[in-house]
């Protein structure tokens, strides 16, 4: 396209030079020569060609600019979607890791004694005291007894249970354990067995609640 424009411009310059030479050679016939220049319409045609080429260049430039803008918008949308997906992935990883961290913390007290009314992770706790003390280490304030812990928790279906959820037992909620995965809980069971791991359905669960995301 640039070569074509250059060729046209060169042609215009040569035509202009030839016309000027003719006028210098015969000044008296200048009017006639000038009229002859326009009679065949060569100048007008050349100007029209240049204008048409220029218009084509502008049109192509605008088309390319629109195509670029469209591609840029598509790329921006794809980048935003990818960034959102990455944030969601990281958030989910952090959520799951936090739940696992609580379970790992609770597991280190397996084998410690059960003490009715106790809240000590090392010297002895009952079921709700054990849950209250474990969660307190992570900034959660749970009520003191199992029934109250269930009432203030976010209720879940048993089919949706996750690591870190609480499993409650009894029609009047008298016992609670921490779900650790693989259909098991850790809980302060009895004075005979202390804090131990059991199958989550060692007794029929009456509800599932959580304090975690």
TrEMBL record:
Annotated NlpC/P60 domain ranges read: 96-213
Transit peptide recorded as keyword: no
Give the signal sequence positions.
Answer: 1-19
Gene3D superfamilies, from UniProt?
A: endopeptidase domain like (from Nostoc punctiforme)
Q: Which residues form a coiled coil?
A: 51-101
Task: Please provide the record's keywords in A-Z order.
Answer: Coiled coil, Hydrolase, Protease, Signal, Thiol protease
Under the heading InterPro entries, the entry gives: NLP_P60_dom, Papain-like_cys_pep_sf, Peptidase_C40
Q: Which Pfam families does the UniProt record give?
A: NLPC_P60
Q: Indicate what this protein is called per its UniProt record.
A: Cell wall-associated NlpC family hydrolase
Origin species, per record, is Blautia caecimuris
């Amino acid at each position: 396209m640039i070569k074509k424009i250059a060729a046209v411009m060169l042609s215009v310059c040569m035509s202009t030079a030839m016309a000027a030479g003719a006028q210098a050679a015969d000044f008296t016939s200048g009017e006639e020569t000038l009229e002859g220049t326009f009679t065949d319409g060569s100048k007008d045609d050349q100007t029209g060609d240049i204008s048409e080429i220029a218009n084509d260049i502008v049109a192509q430039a605008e088309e390319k600019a629109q195509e670029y803008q469209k591609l840029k918008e598509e790329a921006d949308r794809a980048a935003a979607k990818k960034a959102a997906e990455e944030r969601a992935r990281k958030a989910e990883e952090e959520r799951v890791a936090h739940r696992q961290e609580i379970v790992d913390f609770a597991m280190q007290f397996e084998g410690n004694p059960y003490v009715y009314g106790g809240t000590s992770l090392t010297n002895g706790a009952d079921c709700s005291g054990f849950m209250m003390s474990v969660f307190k280490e992570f900034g959660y304030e749970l009520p003191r007894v199992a029934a109250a812990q269930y009432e203030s928790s976010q209720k879940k279906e048993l089919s949706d249970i996750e690591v870190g959820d609480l499993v409650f037992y009894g029609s009047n909620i008298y016992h609670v354990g921490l779900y650790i995965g693989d259909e098991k809980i850790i809980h302060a069971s009895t004075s005979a067995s202390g804090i131990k791991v059991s199958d989550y359905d060692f007794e029929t669960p009456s509800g599932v609640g959580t304090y975690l995301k």
